[in-house]
Model the fold of this input.
Amino acid sequence: MDLGPLLSILSDGEYISGVALGQKLGVSRTAIWKMMGKIEELGIDVDCIKGKGYRVGGGLDLLDRDIAKGLSCSDTVAFCDVLLDVESTNSYLMEKVARHALARGEFGFCLAERQTRGRGRRGRLWVSPFGQNIYLSGTYFFPGEVSRLTGLSLSIGIATAELLNEMGVPGVELKWPNDLMIGGRKLGGILVELSGEITQGCMVLIGIGLNVGMRESEVSTIDQPWTSLVEEGVSIPRSRLAANLIEKIVATVSRFNESGFVEFFPLWQKYDYLKGKPVTVPGGDLAGIGAGINDSGELLIQSEGKMVSVNAGEVSVRVSTDSD
Ligand code: BTN
Done:
């Protein structure tokens, strides 16, 4: 059952009767009633009033299913699947490219309206309600040694921060290694994973989660301070943001493939959230002051008169006041 056409009718937030919906979609009222049940299963609140019909209060900002067609880099994007509901866009892409390999130099993308088991770093769940945020994954084959990927996830973070900046989002910072922050609150995160045989190169999966329309008053299941573009007073249609992000990822990965982290490294300073802040590495008995990163993307901490470098891996770094 494709709920897309029904959702797109309901996206204007106006009431419409079951009869009118049935006529528009060429199905019975009973079918409409069943579809409404499915829509509610996606976590969307549907108001139903006798004599008026159905509506989604406040409407929906749906992703453009044909987003790939308008991209400036459409020649290198083999596909961009726009899904209503998926466990995780990273897992989806991983399975898809295991079945149909991409040609060299081609990108594959996936966007979803909702993730039921969105994956965050360190095994965390990424809260992914329907139609609110960006859940985007991209994949690309990197030839050569895996060590060539050093700094890739930081480069994607820098590129995302640059894009948000260019699109008029104020105060974006990067908390090493991969958190996008505004005012000390998490706006988004990046999860880079490798897939397949890691001998003659590997498939890289780049997952980006960005909080766009999520409201603090509506979500209570995130256990760390977070924000969204709407909470910051910024309104950007999700499709425009997603299309710009895809173009940015293609440009960044292509540039990184040519020259590596060296191109991106100097830009880190512009967004460095930890610089000059007291930080601790839990479990590592390390405390000091954030002092930037080195050209391998490791975090530098000034501790007891020495400069110590910390590798991203599974480490989480806390600012003394953070709950993360
Ligand atoms: C983090 O923990 O900060 C990283 C979060 C990454 C979330 C994104 S949402 C799109 C993609 N699919 C996933 O399952 N995770 C990433």
Notes: Helices lie at 4-10, 18-25, 29-41, 89-99, 152-166, 238-259, 268-271.
